[in-house]
Write a structure and sequence with these properties.
The protein contains seven helices and no strands. With 151 residues, it is mainly alpha-helical. Helix 1 packs across helix 5, helix 3 runs antiparallel to helix 4 and helix 4 runs antiparallel to helix 5. The longest helix is centred in the first third of the chain and has 29 residues. The chain is elongated. The termini are far apart.
Length: 151
């Protein structure tokens, strides 16, 4: 006779998804938080980078504030709508940085860091617990049978 499965059994895939989500999100928070801090403290490196990309000087404070708000939004638990806006803002910012780098430098090697960060943002977004729960509900056949009965 087979022993029943304990109710606290956790699947290995769930642990892998959770670990990947938290590690990518913590890296994004740390990296963008450092960028926000450097922009708000007006570090020379960022001033020269913005001037090289033909951005006005006041954009440094704007980007620093926006990045700081995005980091705070990603760090706050249980706010899925705010986190979605933060992910969208970070992705748009990275895409615009890539466009500016292509226009100024014309060398694809400068795109390594922004594209890696964009991939991490996408990974963190797709592995969010809210999305995993939503997809698990869509895969559940009981949900589909209830939807069919309603229509």
């Amino acid at each position: 006779m087979e022993a029943p499965n304990p109710p606290f059994r956790v699947k290995v895939a769930d642990i892998t998804f959770r670990t990947s989500y938290y590690s990518s999100t913590i890296y994004i928070i740390g990296y963008i938080g450092k960028i926000a801090f450097d922009c708000l403290m007006v570090r020379d490196r960022w001033v020269h980078l913005l001037l090289d990309l033909d951005f006005p000087g006041y954009m440094l404070h704007f980007l620093g504030s926006a990045n700081l708000l995005a980091v705070l939004a990603l760090a706050i638990p249980d706010c899925p709508r705010i986190k979605e806006w933060a992910y969208a803002g970070i992705a748009i910012e990275i895409v615009l940085v890539c466009y500016a780098i292509i226009q100024v430098y014309e060398d694809p090697l400068y795109l390594r860091t922004p594209l890696t960060l964009l991939a991490l943002v996408g990974l963190s977004y797709l592995l969010r617990p809210e999305i995993r729960v939503r997809h698990a509900l869509l895969r559940d056949e009981d949900v589909w049978s209830k939807i069919r009965r309603l229509t």
